[in-house]
Design goal:
The chain is built from 12 helices and 2 strands; from the N terminus they run ααββαααααααααα. With 214 residues, it is an all-alpha fold.
Length: 214
């Protein structure tokens, strides 16, 4: 908290003590050698929500992004992989704040990794959100600048739309891939995904005979 707020540990604890004295937050640890608590929780979920609602949307985005950036800079590669959801969520608040292309591409890659992990954990709707965020980071010229990442995100988005039963969105995404993909071989996996809900809708009792694409 001290690092995010750009205050000293002492000044941060002084501010927290006001909330402690009023019962808004509660200590989760004992006093350290400096007679400060290092871990806290809100006294009630509604207190947390009320405090959060008092912050403007612009300040929320900036603060979330600052937290994400701090984690990104401090965590090791192994820790980043283990805490990828905790890391990428705050970083995505910076989509409208960051203009540096290299950084936007880097965060798009992180969303691709997170999207796959969420998909593998069967958190399909959450995974869709990471796919959308990844494409948002890449921007309008994504297919031209970062073809490989863009295609991977679109392929996942098609699959996830199908898994979530959003056939209309799936068809829209497939049309984009059909227009932008560099080769027929790139389009085939996406067409394969597109066929599945159509087949199931026409004959839900009969398993779909998946064709070999390669």
């Amino acid at each position: 908290m001290a690092k995010v707020s750009n205050k000293s540990d002492r000044d941060t604890f002084a501010l927290l003590k006001i909330a402690l004295d009023r019962g808004f937050i509660l200590p989760l640890s004992g006093l350290d050698e400096n007679l400060r608590f290092q871990s806290y929780k809100f006294g009630h979920d509604r207190i947390q929500q009320a405090a959060y609602d008092l912050i403007s949307n612009a300040d929320k985005a900036a603060t979330h992004y600052r937290i994400g950036t701090m984690l990104y800079q401090q965590l090791s590669s192994t820790a980043k992989s283990e805490r990828i959801f905790e890391l990428v969520g705050p970083l995505n608040y910076g989509i409208s704040l960051i203009t540096e292309i290299q950084k936007r591409d880097e965060f798009a890659k992180l969303n691709l990794i997170t999207c796959r992990k969420a998909r593998d954990a069967t958190a399909y709707q959450t995974s869709r959100e990471y796919a959308i965020a990844g494409l948002s980071w890449l921007g309008k010229k994504a297919w031209f600048r970062q073809y490989k990442i863009t295609f991977a995100l679109f392929e996942l988005a098609v699959e996830l739309a199908s898994l979530c039963g959003d056939v209309e969105e799936m068809e829209r995404l497939v049309e984009t891939v059909a227009t932008e993909a560099k080769s027929v071989l790139d389009r085939l996996p996406v067409y394969h995904t597109q066929i599945i809900p159509i087949s199931l809708a026409s004959n839900p009792q009969k398993p779909f005979p998946f064709p070999k694409l390669f």
